[in-house]
Amino acid sequence: MFEAPPLEILRRGTPSAERRRGVCGGPIFSYRASLRSSQGRYREAVKLLDRALAIYRQARDRHLEGKTLIQKAMALTYDGKIERAALLAQRGLSLVDPAEDPRLFITARHNLIGYLNDIGSPDEALETLRRTRRLYQDFGEPSHLARLSWLEGRITRDLGRLDEAEAALKEARDFFVRHEIGLDAARVLLDLATVYDRRGDGAELKRLAAEMVPIFASRDVHPEALAALALFQKAAAAEQVDRALLDRIAAELQRTAKPAR
Prior knowledge:
- The protein is mostly helical.
- It contains 13 helices and no strands.
């Protein structure tokens, strides 16, 4: 795993114009890949990104190669290939110039931490998060810090540290609700539900279901996601919430959070 670069390197910045000779075709393939991903055509996106990678490697542009590997990792994640995505994200992070694009670097680290947790390596994910926290604090916007709390909550939940998970997830929930980011608020609330389910706390599940009411008024929640949340509310009221139901609803919310098809 990587150590985060010193903060002075991120602040310094580097010129990039002189390093962009011979790569003019690459951005075209990258743009087309982004379009394919937004259409849900992830395998086509990967093929386009491979063409961009060939151009960047021939030009020996490490930064653009790393950036494209990170983009490819995201496409693979949407296609369900998370283990491969984690490997590509690690490789991409070793190539990108954090001074040239610190936002990309932090976002890629965030994604990598999520990949590690999703493939069953929560200890490694938490250690990587710990090494990245300073960058979030120095360069992250409030929304980035909220997503950090959300990610930390998911990791500590999977490590069985449920009190820490609850506190972190509540912090993220409060931000998303306060800023009316409905879909993310719903997904955090569902992660909180998994914490209470693991505790066997039916009362908290009922209370959590009641907290979802304002989310139904949000304009950024897909109708299918709203239907999934309504199902959760009904099950919580009837004390019929179980892990299988939570997994099914989480999958539906994740699907509606992907780039539009």
